[in-house]
Design goal:
The protein is mainly β. The protein has one domain: Nucleoplasmin core domain (Jelly Rolls, Sandwich), CATH 2.60.120.340. The protein is built from no helices and seven strands. It has a five-stranded mixed β-sheet with strand order 1-2-7-4-5, with no helix packed on it. The chain is globular and about 40 Å long. The two termini are 14 Å apart.
């Protein structure tokens, strides 16, 4: 397990398909400041190296932390999502609680 980071990694908006891995203790920040641009989150999955235990992917927007999905090896390793973020949502941060990256 890597050292926890107080500073979230920041993602630049890129049109088209892309993916990122969010590790426990290493938040991923989406500045979400480009007008006429939105991000749609379609799925979340555990990697092939996942260990035992539940891992929850959450989004922090403004003052709320909302769980998007909880994944567990050999039970639910992938989850379909239909969450869209627009500039009106402001900056969002993705965090993982649990032992595995998502």
């Amino acid at each position: 397990m890597g050292k926890k980071s107080d500073v979230p990694a920041e993602v630049a908006p890129v049109p088209g398909f892309f993916g990122h891995v969010v590790k426990p203790g290493h938040p991923l920040k989406w500045p979400n400041e480009v007008e006429d641009f939105c991000m749609q989150l379609n799925s979340a999955a555990l990697g092939a190296d996942a260990t035992e235990g539940r891992s929850t992917l959450s989004v922090v927007a403004k003052t709320s932390k909302i769980a998007l999905c909880t994944l567990t090896p050999e039970v639910a390793e992938q989850w379909n999502l239909t969450q869209t973020f627009t500039p009106t949502d402001g900056a969002v941060e993705f965090v993982v609680d649990g032992p595995n990256a998502i």
